[in-house]
Specification:
With 313 residues, this protein is an alpha/beta fold. It has one domain (6-312): TIM Barrel (Alpha-Beta Barrel). The protein has 13 helices and nine strands. It has helices at residues 6-10, 17-25, 41-44, 69-82, 102-113, 132-144, 158-163, 170-182, 200-213, 230-236, 245-258, 286-299, 306-312, and strands at residues 29-34, 87-92, 118-125, 146-154, 186-193, 217-222, 225-226, 264-267, 277-279. The longest helix has 14 residues, at 69-82. The termini are close together. Residues 1-5 have low confidence and may be disordered. The protein binds iron/sulfur cluster. The site of iron/sulfur cluster has 11 residues, from helix 3.
Length: 313
């Protein structure tokens, strides 16, 4: 039997990351996104290039000067400490942050953890960049420090993954999730709603698959078009139809209902800034998108895990 505590935790109908971090660390903690100069096998690999079609040339990341990542992390963490935060989580976000030799990975991660006030690591990567060696390193580090790993699942539909030049099938994601879980490493799955050719039915199949994998955390955003991505051309050629705000808010509300109640909802909308986002412009007002989703959940008298409970509870 699943116990629902969502509303008690944060006053919202879902369990968000800031609530989790506050509970875990006993005070406010913020994630700091960094580009530490990694690359991606899907953009500049031996066998593949071009990248996922939604990705921008900065690797869907923070855009700082990679040479100055440590300085950025240090300065921003210091500011947080001055404001009374408990500290920060170093979020290795841009590109694929396990795509290096394991010795180098260890140096990068430890360089972040050495900084005063950095309480843990969040490592974004591709499922095909998680081999036994680097999973062993992550497992080792996760015993010493707080750590989670983020993987882009995006959809369970292999046809869509191929259409978007993802470079691997959904089965690779499933394999990576089980390997990480086998080592007790917290795993966050990313999903995109509104990829080309996907109906609501297909989107909900991916949500169901995600809920069955029972990740520690999830992120959802609508497909959005950013400057420099392959999809930019498709968008201007009229080949892509994007979700309207109301459509997305309804889909995201269902996503929340379908997730396990214990899963931490890290993000429920897009987070690209004005200079880089082409469409949909409603994505720029993140608070408004969140409010719409919460409004729909309240209208449905619903909350995180409601549909999960009905199916598996
Ligand atoms: S989205 Fe991630 S995996 Fe895809 S090309 Fe960009 S950096 Fe690589």
């Amino acid at each position: 039997m699943i116990e629902l505590k969502v509303n008690e935790k944060n006053g919202l109908p879902y369990y968000n990351l800031s609530s989790f971090l506050k509970e875990h660390f006993g005070g406010k903690v913020r994630k700091i996104s960094i580009d530490a100069g990694f690359s991606c096998p899907n953009r500049k690999g031996k066998e593949r290039e071009g990248g996922c079609f939604w990705c921008d040339p900065k690797g869907s990341g923070s855009g700082n000067d990679p040479k100055l990542w440590r300085q950025k992390l240090e300065e921003e963490t210091k500011r947080l400490l001055q404001k009374g935060f408990k500290g920060s989580i170093a979020y290795f976000q841009s590109f694929s942050n396990t795509y290096r030799e394991v010795k180098e990975l260890n140096e990068f991660y430890r360089a972040a953890l050495e900084i005063n006030g950095v309480l843990g690591l969040a490592i974004g990567t591709r499922a095909d960049c998680l081999n036994d060696e680097n999973i062993e390193l992550l497992s080792h580090l996760s015993k010493e420090k707080f750590l989670w790993v983020e993987i882009g699942m995006q959809t369970k539909n292999d046809k869509t993954l191929e259409l978007c030049n993802r470079g691997y099938s959904h089965s690779i994601t499933v394999e990576a999730v089980y390997k990480l879980k086998g080592k007790n490493i917290k795993t966050v799955l990313h999903l995109i709603a509104g990829l080309p050719g996907e109906t609501e039915e297909i989107i909900f199949e991916s949500f169901e698959e995600c809920s069955k994998l029972m990740p520690w955390g999830v992120k959802l955003h609508p497909l959005h078009i950013v400057k420099g991505s392959f999809f930019e051309k498709w968008f201007y050629d009229g080949k892509i139809k994007l979700l309207e705000l109301n459509q997305y808010a309804n889909i995201a509300a269902t996503f929340i209902e379908m997730m396990p109640p214990e899963t931490v909802i890290h993000r429920i909308t897009g987070e690209r800034e004005e200079g880089i986002l082409i469409a949909p412009k409603w994505c720029l007002d993140k608070n408004n998108v969140r409010n719409e989703i919460v409004k729909i959940l309240k209208e449905r008298n619903s909350f995180q895990g409601k549909l999960f409970k009905q199916r598996y509870g």
